[in-house]
Amino acid sequence: MSKRRFFHLHLVSDATGETLVSVARAASAQYVTINAIEHIHSLIRTGAQVEDVARKIEDAPGIVLYTLVDRDTASALESECRR
């Protein structure tokens, strides 16, 4: 019996994240032998929210995709991911 393979996919948006989720699902569908476990983080607009998301990413490391319009918020998320 083969073991199911998976990866964590963190989707971070400053709005509902619907477009991001659609794009991520289309991309992850290309990998038929590996399943994505989606973690959707929507309405992320403050530094405190970014820190909370970073803790969740640390608990379940994986790929992070984001749509954050505010450059400071996006930079904070990128810094947390690099850390």
Describe this structure in words.
By secondary structure, the chain is of the alpha/beta class. It is built from 3 helices and 3 strands. The protein has a 3-stranded parallel beta sheet with strand order 2-1-3, covered by helices on one side. β1, α1 (18-28) and β2 (34-41) form a beta-alpha-beta unit. α2 (47-59) runs parallel beside α3 (71-82). The chain is globular, with a radius of gyration of 13 Å. The mean pLDDT is 94.
Strand order of the largest sheet: 2-1-3
Major β-sheet annotation: 3 strands, parallel
Rg of Cα set: 13 Å
Structural classification: alpha/beta
What level of helicity do the residues show?
Answer: 40-55%
Poorly predicted parts: none
Task: Please describe the topology of this protein.
Layout: E1 5-13, H1 18-28, E2 34-41, H2 47-59, E3 62-67, H3 71-82
Parallel strand pairs: 1-2, 1-3
Helix pairs in contact: 2-3
Short description:
It contains three helices and three strands; from the N terminus they run E-H-E-H-E-H.
Keywords:
single chain; alpha/beta; 3-stranded parallel β-sheet; 43% helix; globular
